[in-house]
Structures are given as C-alpha cells and as structure tokens.
Amino acid sequence: MLMPDLALTQRLEFHEAWSSRAHARVQARLYPETGATSLPFAGGHAVYCGRSPFTQVYGAGLSGPVRAADLDAVEAAMRDETRVLYAESIANPTLRVADIPELAKIAHRHGARVVVDGVAYAPHRVMDVAAWDVDWYAYSAYKVYGPHMAALYGKSDAFADLVGPNHYFVDRSDVPYKFELGGVNHEGCAGLIALGDYLKFLAGADHEAAIDRETVCAAFGTMTDCELPLQAKLIAYLLAKDPVALIGPKSGDRSRVGTISFVHSSLTSREVAEAAHEQNIGIRHGHMYAHRLCKAILKDPDDGVVRISLVHYNSLEEIDRLIDLFERIL
Fold it and tell me: For residue 97, what is the DSSP state?
C-alpha cells in the first residue's frame, strides 16, 4: 500500500516505540523502584527505563512542532538521581536537527551530564561543543573526510568523574592517557591532522596559515551552501513522484541534511540501487542499522530503504544524472 511520506515516518516511529514501551512496562513490573514508564511527548512517546530521564524519544515533532511545553516535559522528567541525558544531533529516521543547546541547559539545571552522538551531523554542519555546552560529544572522523578513526570530546570535569581503563599505576588525572589502551594509530593521526589542509581549502584560507576556529566555521559554511541546492532539488523531485514515499522532512532547507531515504510502491530498494550502480551512481539500500524499524514496517528489512547520501562535493550535474535515471525507472 502506498502511503504519504509523513505517514510512513509516523508508522516507523510508532513501531519502534512499541517495543521500547513494552520493555518499560516489563521493567516497571519486575523492578518498580526504577520508575520505568512511557509518556506522551510532542506527539510521540518518551520512554523511561531505569533512572534516566528520557532513555529514548520516538515521533517527537511528527504530528506538529515541538513546543515549549514539550521541553518543559523533559525538565519535569529530570529526577534527583538522573545522571545522564543522551541525545542525537540528528534524529533517525526523521533526520531533523535537534535543539542540543536547550537540552543541555535542562540537563545541567538538574546536575546531569549531556552525551551527544554526532555521527550523522558532523559531515554536514560545524560542531560547536562550547556553544552547545555538552559534556561529551562523539563522532566518526572518517565521516568528516578524515581517516577511519573515532573522535570523542569531553569536558575536563567530565573526564575527572570517570576512572579510565588504563593500568592502575596511571593516575586518573592523566587524561587522555588514562583512557588509551595501547599506542595510538599514528598513521590515522597523521591523516586527521591533514584534514586541516582540506578545511583551509574549503574556506579559501592561506594553505600555510594555522587552522583556527574561524577557518573551520567558514569551511563548514561552504559545505552547507554547496549541499542545500542539491538536497532541495532532489527532495522536490521525489515528492512529485506518486510511487515514492519519502522518509523524513519534506523540506530541503537547513532543518535537515542531505541524507535522503525513500521506498517505492512496486520496486524493491535493491532494484533501485542496482539500477543506479549500473550507471556508476553510488547509492545504497538496506536497513542502515535501523533493523527494528525496517522489520516492523517493511516486508524485507534487508531490502530496507533506498539511501542517498549527498555531501558538499556532489554537484547539480550529478543530481540531474540521478533524476534522469529515476525518470526511467521510478
């Protein structure tokens, strides 16, 4: 059955929420002292497991805008024993950009740490852990045009709260050594440093100059300016195709990034992706590690969705090539 893209996204979120709400009910029955439960939140559901505030939130903003009252609900959920508030910079599968600074303010007012997953955000927009006031921020360096490494930011006092896994004779104040098991990947570190040259190129800065915050911001500004016309054109095209159900926001503006997913009413996602591959166009299909969602809503979770990942070095000519292909097969 063909469904509007918003309806499909709502169903995806509903089915993912269903299993988590069931888990919370079981936990509340077996361990009532944890206060596990689920509550309505911003048109979706907030699930509490154990002593965290919102272990997970599903469907927020899909039935209307997230209001100030909804953020008040996050604050009301904070308890004396709450220690961590976890969030994603970009929610999956809706791909909306989250209000991380506001969530950080709420958590800190109650003495909780803020942990943010930035893996889907980092390739597209400039990160600003200082302005966001997050305690921990993690992303994959290889998704930001660097080597295959991970990066973890933490405030000094956040590190001080933890006991690192390195040897007992390494003082816990010796950061990051206390958290390094074995030697660093020197080749990867060299590649990560070289990323500065690429950012200077994008910013139009002097190649010999030192990399600074202003240059990083300018580089990511260039990335955003390059990506917006690409995603706007492709999303507008997909929305005009009746057999296509777009997952996520309908707008191609700054409220989302250029990672675009959809399904077709009669073609499998594999068929769409393979047709693109035959034309030397690199797109993917599958569950993209959202296996529960795809299993709940699609006939074949391994076939999953068609996933197009646009970044700043793609071109409008490449979007035209993809649209020409879609005109023949969709």
Answer: B
Measured CA to CA, the distance from residue 81 to residue 53 in angstroms comes to 9
The owner of tokens 């903003």 is 61
pLDDT value for 53: 46
Domains annotated for the chain, with CATH where assigned, are 5-164 (3.40.640), 218-329 (3.90.1150.10)
Determine whether 91 is exposed, middle or buried from the number of CB atoms within 10 Å of its CB (0-12, 13-18, 19+).
Answer: buried
Alpha-carbon span 263 to 285, nearest angstrom: 10
Q: Which of 279, 280, 288 is nearest to 260 (CA)?
A: 288
Interhelix angle 213-239/316-329, nearest 10 degrees: 20
Decide if 250 contacts 7 (C-beta within 8 A): no
Nearby residues of 73 by Cβ (< 8 Å), 6 or more positions away: 39, 41, 42, 46
| Element containing residue 86 per DSSP (H, E) | strand 84-88
Cβ atoms of residues 52 and 36 within 8 Å: no
Taking the chain, what is the end-to-end CA distance rounded to the nearest angstrom? 16
**Angle subtended at Cα 195 by Cα 194 and Cα 200, rounded to the nearest 5 degrees:** 105
Answer with the residue of higher pLDDT: 9 or 284. Answer: 284
Distance CA 205, CA 84 (A): 39
pLDDT tens-digit series, residues 175-229: 888 988 888 888 998 888 889 999 999 999 999 999 999 999 999 999 999 999 9
Which one-letter DSSP state was computed for residue 98?
A: P
CA distances from 135 to 53, 152, 213 (A): 16, 10, 19
Task: Look up residue 74 and give its two tokens.
Answer: 């996050």
Mean pLDDT estimate for the chain = 84
